[in-house]
Amino acid sequence: MYRYDEVYAYTQKVLDLISKSDVTPEEAAWITQETLEGFRENVNPGFLEYRKTVTKRGQYASVEWKDSGANCFVDVNGKEYIDCLGGFGIYNVGHRHPKVLKAVKDQMDKQALHSQDLLDPLRALLAKILAAITPGDLKYSFFTNSGTESVEAAIKLAKAHQNKKGRSTFIATTRAFHGKSLGSLSGTAKGVFRKPFMPLIPGFRHVPFGDIDMMHKTMHACSMVGEDVAAVIVEPIQGEGGVILPPEDYLPKLRELCDDYGALLIFDEVQTGMGRTGKMFCCEHYGVVPDIMCLAKAFGGGVMPAGATIATEEVFSNLFENPFLHTTTFGGNPLACAAAIATINVLIEEKLPERAAEIGEYLLENLREAVKGHEDKVVEVRGKGLLIGIEFVNDLIGYETSKGLFDNGVLVAGTLVNAKTIRIEPPLTITKEQCDRVCMVLSKVLKSLNA
To answer: What is each CA distance from 182 to 155, 196, 199, 291, in whole angstroms?
Structure first.
C-alpha cells in the first residue's frame, strides 16, 4: 500500500528546506543523515566510497548546499570551498551569474518548455548566434542536454553523411573521453568503462593521442582493406585523459589527413569550449576548423544543462529531408537556450576567454612554483588557459593531495581516465587572490605529505 500521506509530509519538509538559504545545525544534521542514507539505499552506495578518496579519515559526509559568490560554494555546515573543480568545467562564467539567472527566470515567467509543434524562437536565435561565433563554415546546430548527447548526435550526423559513401570506420584516440552512452562510449578509451558493455558500436578504432604518424598509418590501412574512415573524433586538449596537450602541429596535420582521406573531423569541445582555454573554442589556438563540433558543460552557464552539436551545411543537410531522424524532447528547450544566449553574452562582455588566458598563465606559473622541491611526488603541471592538470607519480599521492586540499577548503578532483592527474578547473572569474590561496594550500599540503 502506498503511504502517500508520509511521502507528502516528507516532500513538504524537503520543499521547506529548499526555500531556505541557511539551515540550523539540527536541520544540517538531518540533511546530512538523509543524504547519506539516500545514497546508500536509493542512489548508489559506491559514491560514498568514492567520496572517501577526497576527504579525511572517512569523513565523507560533506554535503554541498549553496553557492558563495562567483567562485566558491558552501556545504550544509557552512564551510566555504574555493571551487577548482567547477563541476567538471561547467562554471566558466562563475556560479549563479546574475545575467544568466535573469535570462532563465525571465523565460520561466513566460514559458518553461516548448510545445514541440510550434516554432520555438530561442532555438533559432541561439543557432544563429552559434553560427556567428564558431570558426569556419560551421552553420547548423542540434541542441542537446549534455556532452554525451552532443557526441552521440555528432556520430549519427557523421554516419548519415558517410554511410552513403560506404564509409563506416571511426577513429578515436587513447585516453579519450567522449561520454558513456553506447555510441559515445565507443569513442571513449578507458577499458573499465567499456568492458561491462561490450560489444559496443562496431567500427571504432583507437590510436595514441598526438601521434600523427600512427593516425596516418591507421587511416591508410583502413583505406587499403576497404574500411574507409568516416570520421575522426578528438578533444583538442584531452580533459579527462589528464589535461593532455597535443603537439602544436597535431591538429593542423590531422585536418590535412582527414581531407586527404575523405574523413570528417569531429572536435569534442565539451570541456575545452566556451572560453576555457583562453579562446572561445580551443581549436582556434591551432587555426583548425572541424566539420562537426560538440559543446556542453559550460554552454548552459552553470545554471541549465545544455549542449549543442554544430556542423557544416554539407554534413547537416542529411537531416533536412527528415528532421525527425534524430530528435530530443528537452534539447534546445527555452530555459536552456536562454541560459546559453546569456552565457555567450557574458563571455563576450566580460572578455572571459581573454581573462582565462591571462589568469591561467598566472595560476600555471604559481602552481609550478608551489610544487618545486616535490619532484618526488609531482611529475608535471601543465595546461592551457584555466584547464590545468597536476600529474603525480602515482594515484595514492594524487588522492592524498586532493584530500589535503579539500580539508583546507579547496575543491579539486582527479580526471576520469588518468587517476594520477588532478584537475584545476575553476570558474574563469577566479581572482588572483583566490589563485594565491590555492597555491599556498597546495604547497602546505605537499610539505605535510613528507611528515
So the answer is: 11, 11, 9, 22
- Grid coordinates representing 60 are 565523507
Contact 295, 331 (CB under 8 A): no
Element (H, E) at 252: helix 250-261
d(C-alpha 339, C-alpha 345), whole Å: 10
C-alpha cell at 364: 600555471
* Cβ 252 vs Cβ 286: under 8 Å: yes
Task: Give the strand order in the sheet containing 72-75.
Answer: 64-68, 72-75, 80-83, 410-411
Cβ-based neighbours of 309, under 8 Å, separated by 6 or more:
141, 142, 144, 150, 151, 153, 154, 157, 292, 293, 294, 295
Stretches in the chain below the pLDDT threshold 50? 52-60
Give the separation between CA 120 and CA 118, rounded to whole angstroms. Answer: 6
Distance CA 53, CA 413 (A): 9
* 316-321 CB contacts, 8 Å cutoff, 24+ apart: 316/139, 316/140, 316/142, 316/157, 318/157, 318/160, 318/161, 319/142, 319/157, 319/160
Give strand pairing partners of 414: 422
| Cell numbers that stand for 288 in this block | 583548425
Q: List, for residues 123-179, the tens digit of each pLDDT value.
A: 999 999 999 999 999 999 999 999 999 999 999 999 999 999 999 999 999 999 999
Q: Round to the nearest angstrom and report the end-to-end CA distance of the chain.
A: 58
Q: Which stretches within 39-84 are classed as H helix?
A: 46-51
pLDDT, residue 17, reads: 96
Any idea of the CA torsion for 219, 222, 226, 230, to the nearest 10 degrees? Answer: -60
